[in-house]
Write a structure and sequence with these properties.
alpha+beta; 11-stranded mixed β-sheet; 5-stranded mixed β-sheet; 14 helices; about 35% helix
């Protein structure tokens, strides 16, 4: 199997695009800016969904589903939210097509089927959900309301890239209502921590937890918590956000409850979400010039067994020999595939599974049967060793755990060596242009300075880290007094 991948050092963007397609994760569709997620890519997304869904339910959330289209009048009440998404909205204006009398075989919009009110295809679901919550919340006994939905949304992006930025994408969005400000803030922080836990323990991606600046906040939120990751090319990627909405949406949609004393109060809200953008993060954090490198906790196939044989009799003997191993691995909850295709040679299979990032490959030939051994290869290090068959299943299980940890530690070392403190704007530009990664710098707290730095360098404030300590300093651009460092980076 010929991979012919562009190398990362040659053209990182091209390498990413080629890898996503050649590894059978996704492809562009016939709809501008939209993608087809292929079975192998969707299998990874399903594993992400399953783990996140488990974590949501363990924290008391329930799944529901809300409509894809929303009347424009319903979208408008929370002005900041409506204004923030207005430029990305797709709009439904008609409900029927008809044959075009001037162009046989073609269809046209039926001018007599114009909607009385235009419909917005959801870019996010706050509007429909908060208008629904008005009927669900009457008393403090109805709170907290902890709802999540798995859905698709549409944002009319001008420049798209598979998984990272598409006009339609899959995600989950949590929407909760609480009796007090304290509870809502706790919820926002809790879900940020759930995302960080998932990113680090399943995706093997270290993240920085922080707050967005006012400029970068979700439209309509009082505070946005985020997790920021660093890709191999030194660019940052926002991997998840959790928003404290205050009472903004409750007031916009008149969602009130009677407290224990019978007094009417507005509820306090949150929303939080991650999307198929995580697939892009997974690819860019770990993969190499040979293809995908998948952390075992999210790999659809954790172990692939490839037989090496010349005759059908040898294949049958190998199949019989590995059947026990396959059964033992599955008892240990290891997903395993025996690649006994007779249409492809072992070299082709090795290259294919290497490209697809399967964490462990086991090769078995006639000599292995004689010697009672297996050849075990690691995808992350591209190393291999011969192991005796006794205790092999336990060894493989432990090896997968080792690979998971090693991938995280490798990414953590890269991230930690790419957080650079700077004292002035010349250092800022030098690090940004030549080293990349997060630039830790003082900022005067104004939106004007934030915008100016973005105009001059294309770097944005990724977050104000939650663990940032008070530190006297001066703004990297203006020289004004500052008490905290923030993280800047170029980003996806």
């Amino acid at each position: 199997m010929s991979k012919n991948l562009t190398t990362r050092s040659e053209d990182y963007s091209k390498w990413y695009n080629e890898l996503v397609v050649k590894a059978d994760l996704a492809e562009n569709s016939g709809v501008r800016g939209c993608m087809v997620i292929k079975p192998y890519g969707y299998a990874i997304w399903e594993k992400m969904q399953a783990e996140l869904d488990r974590m949501f339910k363990e924290t008391g959330h329930q799944n529901a589903y809300f409509p894809l289209i929303v009347p424009k009048s319903m979208f408008e009440p929370e002005e900041k939210n409506a204004e923030g998404f207005a430029k990305e909205c797709a709009i439904v204006t008609h409900y029927r097509l008809k044959n075009d009398p001037d162009k046989p075989g073609k269809l046209m919009v039926d001018p007599n089927a114009k909607l009385e009110e235009e419909l917005i295809v959801r870019p996010t679901s706050e509007a429909i959900i908060w208008s629904t919550y008005k009927g669900w919340v009457q008393s403090y006994r109805d709170l907290p309301l902890l709802i999540n939905q798995w859905a698709n949304v549409v944002r009319w992006e001008m420049r798209t890239r598979l998984f990272l930025r598409t006009a339609e994408f899959l995600w989950q969005e949590g929407h909760t209502a609480h009796a007090t400000r304290v509870e809502a803030v706790e919820e926002s922080e809790k879900m940020m921590n759930v995302y960080a836990d998932f990113a680090q323990n399943f995706m093997a991606i270290p993240v920085v937890k922080g707050l967005k600046t006012e400029t970068e906040r979700f439209a309509g939120a009082e505070e946005t918590y985020c997790i920021e990751a660093l890709m191999q090319d030194g660019k940052a990627l926002q991997a998840g956000t959790s928003h404290f909405l205050g009472q903004n949406f409750a007031k916009a949609f008149d969602v009130k409850f009677a407290n224990a004393e019978g007094k009417q109060e507005y509820v306090w809200g949150t929303s939080w979400g991650v999307s198929t953008r995580l697939m892009g993060a997974l690819v860019m954090t770990h993969s190499d010039d040979q293809g995908l490198v998948l952390p075992p906790n999210l790999a659809p196939i954790q172990v692939v067994i490839v037989p090496i044989y010349k005759t059908d009799e040898q294949l049958s003997e190998i199949a019989a020999a590995v059947s026990n191993l396959t059964a033992d691995l599955r008892k240990l909850n290891v997903t395993v595939k025996f690649d006994d295709r007779t249409t492809q040679k072992p070299g082709f299979k090795f290259a294919e599974w290497e490209l697809k990032g399967v964490p462990v490959r086991i090769a078995v030939g006639p000599k292995d049967l004689e010697n009672g051994t297996f050849e075990v290869a690691r995808r992350d290090t591209l190393t291999k060793e011969v192991k005796p068959k006794e205790g092999i299943a336990t060894y493989i299980k432990e090896l997968l755990e080792q690979i998971q940890n090693d991938l995280f530690n490798k990414a953590l070392e890269y991230r930690n060596t790419h957080i650079t403190e700077v004292a002035n704007f010349e250092e800022f530009k030098e690090v940004l242009n030549n080293k990349g990664g997060f630039v830790s710098a003082h900022w005067d707290g104004t939106a004007a300075t934030e915008e100016k730095i973005k105009d001059l360098t294309k770097a944005t404030i990724r977050c104000i880290p939650l663990d940032t300590k008070e530190e006297e300093g001066t703004c990297v651009l203006t020289g004004a007094k500052s008490t905290k460092r923030v993280l800047f980076a170029k980003a996806y």
